[in-house]
Amino acid sequence: MPAQQKKVLFCVAGVLSFACALSIAAAIGTQLWLRGRILCKTGALLVNATGQELEKFIGEIQYGLFYGERVRQCGLGGRPFRFSFFPDLFKVIPASIHVSVILFSLALLVFALIETGFFMYNAFGKPYETLHGPLGLYLWSFISFSCGCLIMILFSSEVKIHHLSEKIANYKEGSFIFKTHSEQFANSFWIILVCSLVHILNILLIRLAGFEFPFSKSKDSETANGAVDLMY
């Protein structure tokens, strides 16, 4: 492939990586990771609520990685209040998983920025046949994709397996018990998914530019001369 087309492909990949970095930064700071509805089970059982009456006992909840908002419904109207994970809910939630989600989200942001720099350096600079060249592009793209997958797996397990919404809803509740009525992942979670897919797209763009996947060369092919051999 001509060098000019390679530069165009690397520029496109760099712009996509930078867009991912901005989106990840926005996702980390919002409370739109999950939306759900919480049933006041105790209140509904007391009046034997069914059908439309049950709606009076179903509140709403939404939260992100650091804070959220909840509307408590127990038959007497909604009472909204905001909460934060640190330090309020730190002893209630699965803290190790939640902190891991935050750390991997920050790592994904950093790796996306590094990936952007490498793509732009390969487009306009004179990279070497080591981590500055196509091997580095493959490496950072794969690491970014892996971080995105870990974030989604950990957050999903925190919500579904450890019942995060119920733990938040029952925090400091004395006589009332709340159960999850429904919940779905919100915008920020899907942003992480889209960014992970973008990193896979970047890997395909590198291959389209004419560079073989790592470890795909035959054993008898000549090895690169290291940092002294120019890629272009």
Give an account of the 3D structure:
One of its GO terms (biological process) is sensory perception of sound. It is a multi-pass membrane protein. It holds the Pfam family Clarin-2. InterPro entries: Clarin. The protein has helices spanning 3-29, 41-46, 95-124, 134-160, 164-169, 187-208, and strands spanning 34-40, 58-63, 67-73, 78-84, 178-185. It is of the alpha+beta class and 232 residues long. It has one domain (3-213): Butyryl-CoA Dehydrogenase, subunit A, domain 3. Helix 1 packs antiparallel against helix 6 (187-208), helix 3 runs antiparallel to helix 4 and helix 4 packs antiparallel against helix 6. It contains 6 helices and 5 strands, in the order αβαβββαααβα. Helix content is 51%, strand content 15%.
**Portion of residues in helices?**
40-55%
Strand content: 15-25%
Cα radius of gyration in angstroms: 24 Å
Q: For this structure, what is the CATH class?
A: Mainly Alpha
Number of helical segments with 4 or more residues? 6
Looking at the structure, the CATH topology is Butyryl-CoA Dehydrogenase, subunit A, domain 3
Nearest-integer average pLDDT: 86
| Largest β sheet strand count, sense and barrel closure | 5 strands, antiparallel
Unreliable stretches: 218-232
Q: Can you tell me the overall shape?
A: elongated
- Looking at the overall shape, the CATH architecture is Up-down Bundle
Strand-pairing-aware structural class: alpha+beta
| Count of all domains | 1
Distance between the termini: 11 Å
Q: For the largest beta sheet, what order do the strands appear in spatially? A: 4-3-2-1-5
Give the ordered list of helices and strands.
HEHEEEHHHEH
Number of strands: 5
